[in-house]
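User: Hand in any protein.

Assistant:
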Amino acid sequence: MKFEPPKENINEAKEILVTVYESLKEKGYNPINQMIGYILSGDPTYITSHNNARSLIRKLERDELIEELLKYYLENEDKEK
């Protein structure tokens, strides 16, 4: 089976990840640890409600977030070599 997300969700996922990251950082959390906790568990309490971050991240499925992270990492890994 082949998984292909809708194209418009990819840019939205990136924007949401950046917004949530910044919101967590502003509130003094370790954004990476908090976002990993959310992605692994699905528990929205890992994400602050500051700047509506919790509502934003719940707009997308966790697999869409993982896909965006993996895509970004692999695309940028190639540029570093």
The chain has a mean pLDDT of 88. The radius of gyration is 13 Å. Residues 6 and 64 are 10 Å apart (CA to CA).
